[in-house]
Each structure stands twice: as structure tokens, then as C-alpha cells.
Write a structure and sequence with these properties.
single chain, alpha+beta, five-stranded mixed beta sheet, 7 helices, 17 strands
Length: 317
């Protein structure tokens, strides 16, 4: 088993671009180690929760830890020579190095509404070539991953050839966890916020109703529901044991196109999902084939075990 440093060194040897990707991932790992420490041992005078009257570029309430995490990531990406940083916390792309070759997009602190409730949160990232500009299809990603700050600080990473899982030790080193990251094709477990069912469009409602009907319904299987409400926590569970995640578009104001962000949430998770043998869709189209029109564009997001995602797509068609 190799630690992250060894994996990145091997990747860097392949080409100049791969070396730049390795430096960017290493910078993100350093940032994640710092963010993990901030979460575990905050200054007693620092309130990491909501900032009164503050919202990020996407209109979500900002937390102090959101801002701190964004600052830490910006500094590490600058040190790594990245050209442009795209962040949930910033209105527009942040130029770092005019001669850099890469763009990094990130949700610096996914699930930050859970900070005050001690639920797992994380950092999601996507790495692309700078020449493609800020708005690229997910298929153009060179690498993607996410860190989870929970009972363990962990990393799921793809460099375009499968998915690797790492756990951070006490020295901030990310060590291979020694398990094959591969999504089973079949599952009987789904995750969705069921409190919104009155707002769902017909395809999602029909699918969930069929799940709840169990063996007596048209799917002829009993299902379990699991829902944390933190994308990285729900995704980690699905990568570990299979399942499907649904955050669909619905009839509420601001949710008609979905709620999660395409560029720095859905695209990197979708790349990981496909590299692990799963599937990611908005219900009718592969997430990785959608051309973004805006940095903070929202999208319906359904991902997980391939055969079950196909069942959900069938309800949409």
C-alpha cells in the first residue's frame, strides 16, 4: 500500500501536466490537514458557525469556517502554481498565476450547515486544464476528489484511472486505506430528503413510492433509506457499500433546476462515481456531459450503483 505522497510522485513522473496535477492535489491535501485541525481544535474565541448577515456567492449562509477554509485552500493553490481558483465562496474566478496550467474548482466546506451539529463535512475539488476556461464539461476533468472531516479525516481521489481511498494520520500524512473502491451494480438502499416529497416531480415520487412499497411493489424488493444531509458523508457511505443518492429538482422556488452546484460539487463526485463503476445523472443526461453555463449553476443530482440509477432513469423516461 502506498501513501498519497508516493502515488502523486508516481503520477508526476508521467508528464509535465501530471506533475502540475500532483502539485495541486498535494496542496489540497495540505489545506485539508489544516482545515481538519481547525475543526478538531478551534480557538476557544473563534465561532465557526454562521456569520450574521453574510451569504456566499450562491446565496447560502456563510459560516466562519467556510471563509477560513476558502482562505487556506487559496493560499495552498497559489503556492502550487495553479492558474485559476473557482470557489463556492467567491462570485467570480480567482486568478492566481498567469502562467499556470490548471484550474481548480472547489466547495471548500461542503455540508457546512452541519458544523454546529458535529456531523461530517468536507472539501470537494475538481482539476481541469486552464486552456479550457472556467466552464468545462465534467468529462474534461483531469482529477477529482473529496475530503471528509468526520471521525476520520479521509480522501477519495481519482487521477483518471480508478479511485483511491486514503486516511489521514496524526502527522497529516494520507495513507492508503487498503480497500478497493468499486460501487456494486445493485443496491437496496437509497438516500433522499423525504420531507420534500410534496414538492417532487412525478418521476422521483413514483420511484420512491415504488421503493417504499417493498416486495409488494413493482420493484419487488425491500429498501432501506439512509440520509445524512451532507453530500460528502452520504457519498462516502455509497462508495463504501453501494446505494443511490437523490437530490432532485422540485417545485420549490430556487430548486427547479436542482440545488447542488454542477461545477464544484456534482462534476467531481460524478467523476469519482464513474471511475468506481457507478453512474451519475440529472435524471435524463449524464452529469459529466452537461455543459456549464455559469460558475454557480445548479443541477439535479442522482448517483450511485449503476443498475439502480438506470431504474431511476427509467422512471424519468
Amino acid at each position: 500500500m502506498q501513501n498519497l505522497d508516493a502515488v502523486l510522485k508516481q503520477h508526476a513522473a508521467q508528464s509535465d501536466i501530471d506533475a502540475d496535477v500532483a502539485r495541486a492535489v498535494n496542496g489540497l491535501a495540505l489545506a485539508a490537514a489544516s482545515i481538519s485541525k481547525l475543526i478538531r481544535t478551534p480557538d476557544s474565541a473563534t465561532n465557526l458557525g454562521a456569520i450574521k448577515g453574510s451569504a456566499n456567492a450562491d446565496g447560502d449562509d456563510q459560516k466562519a469556517l467556510d471563509v477560513l477554509a476558502d482562505d487556506v485552500i487559496t493560499a495552498q493553490l497559489h503556492a502550487a502554481g495553479v492558474a485559476i481558483y473557482l470557489s463556492e465562496e467567491q462570485d467570480t474566478p480567482i486568478p492566481l498565476h498567469a502562467d499556470g496550467t490548471l484550474i481548480v474548482a472547489s466547495d471548500p466546506l461542503d455540508g457546512s450547515s452541519n458544523i454546529d451539529t458535529n456531523v461530517s463535512i468536507g472539501t470537494i475539488f475538481s482539476i481541469m486544464l486552464a486552456v479550457g476556461g472556467p466552464l468545462q464539461c465534467g468529462r474534461d476533468q483531469l482529477a477529482a476528489g473529496f475530503f471528509v472531516y468526520g471521525p476520520q479525516t479521509t480522501l477519495l481521489l481519482t487521477l483518471g484511472d480508478g479511485v483511491l481511498a486514503f486516511q489521514m494520520d496524526d502527522d497529516g500524512c494520507f495513507c492508503d486505506m487498503g480497500w478497493q473502491v468499486a460501487l456494486p451494480a445493485d443496491t437496496q438502499e437509497f438516500g433522499i430528503n423525504a420531507s420534500n416529497q410534496r414538492h417532487w416531480y412525478a418521476p422521483v415520487k413514483a420511484y420512491i413510492d415504488a421503493c417504499l412499497d417493498g416486495r409488494d411493489g413493482e420493484l419487488k424488493r425491500n429498501y432501506n433509506m439512509r440520509w445524512v444531509g451532507s453530500l460528502v458523508a452520504d457519498a462516502w457511505r455509497i462508495f463504501r457499500r453501494g446505494g443511490v443518492f437523490l437530490y432532485p429538482a422540485d417545485r420549490r422556488d430556487g430548486y427547479s433546476q436542482g440545488r447542488l452546484r454542477l461545477v464544484y460539487e456534482a462534476n467531481p463526485v460524478a467523476m469519482l462515481v464513474e471511475q468506481a463503476g457507478g453512474k451519475a445523472t440529472n435524471g435524463t443526461e449524464s452529469i459529466l456531459d452537461i455543459q456549464p453555463q455559469d460558475l454557480h449553476e445548479r443541477v439535479a443530482f442522482i448517483f450511485g450503483s449503476m443498475n439502480e440509477v438506470d431504474v431511476i432513469i427509467g422512471y424519468h423516461s
